[in-house]
Amino acid sequence: MNASVPTHALALSWLAHVAQALWQGTAAALVLLACERLLRRRSPRLRHALLLIALIKFVLPPMLPLPTGVFSAAPPAPRIHAVRQLGALPSWIVLAIAVAYGVGATVAFARVAAGAWHLHGLRRRSFAAPRWAEELLAGVAREHGVRPPRLLASDEAGVPMTFGVFAPAVVLPRALPSLLDRDALRDVFAHELLHVRRGDLLLNLAGSLIAAAWWFHPLVQLIARRARALREECCDDELLASGLHDAAVYARTLAATASLLRERPPFAAAAVAEEPHALLARVLRIANGAHPTRRLGLAAIAIVITAALLLLPGLRVSSDNHFAFDRATLRALGLHHH
Asked: Which of 137, 246, 322, 336 is the most exposed place for a label (fewest CB within 10 A)?
């Protein structure tokens, strides 16, 4: 057998897998983005959950069926047929696609790694915050049931931000404690602590990794950005729903933070403010009397579960589905030589 066959066959198998994941993920993403748009007046927690389903769809195997899935309702997909169709492509095209994806993915993951390294360096170059600020953070952490993270100050930080999946740290711009009053600083700390409690630091990282893997797909990039923005609104709602913070004071705190905004926080950091227009939208939402909730209601939970059961399962496969290229598959593709 030609020595190049296994490599070509492996590339064809990968391409068939990506093609199936691509059209299923795109269809699910369009549906869920439309639902998120239609539900724009509902809780950001619900809309965020729907967008998480869209991201998860791009990670799950496309041939993972369940009776509840809309994709699983389609006739069984003989993988060998899909691979045979792709096998009609010249080998150089298959190789070019694989190389182009590899180069793009390498660049995308390198950017994620560079962001992580930047945060590591920022943490190393930061210094301890004033003692009174540490005590204030500890008090707010007790109020919200969160273990207080390390508090640092930095001349490099444009806005307050939190990062570190396993060892969270809150980093403040050096001048911030002298620019905000005590109530405003309590709001800043509460927002950052809620990111920690909700697990947003891990979600930010996961979203960045999924977006890097699907670097060529504009919908994945859009969903990852939108989900990150909704996590900010979720923290706003949880903060106000706690009853420990005044909505008017918090809106003024967000507006004051906007004047400090110098740069977008790195990918895995969670911040009080990320972009001026997004911050303004959050201020207006609070000023217009949004009704914050801390948990999803039963109706919202039902919507999320239904969406997951319908859209996450993949296609059924027939008995001639081959994930490995054995002799029978190669013979069917016309690639087997004695």
From this structure: 246
Q: Please say whether the beta carbons of 173 and 261 come within 8 A.
A: no
Neighbouring residues of 280: CB distance < 8 A, sequence distance ≥ 6:
258
The residue behind tokens 């920022």 is: 122
pTM value is 0.86
pLDDT digits (tens, 9 = 90+) for 77-123: 555 455 555 556 677 787 888 899 999 999 999 999 999 999 999 99
**Residues facing 163 on adjacent strands:** 169
Delimit the domains of the chain by residue range: 5-332
Tokens 């911040």 found at: 271
Record the tokens describing residue 68, joined without a space. Answer: 């509840």
**C-alpha to C-alpha distance for 52 and 296, rounded to whole angstroms:** 15
Question: Cβ of 69: how many Cβ atoms within 10 Å?
Answer: 20
Backbone angles phi, psi at 127, to 5 degrees: -130, 165
Q: Residue 238, exposed/middle/buried by CB under 10 A (0-12, 13-18, 19+)?
A: buried
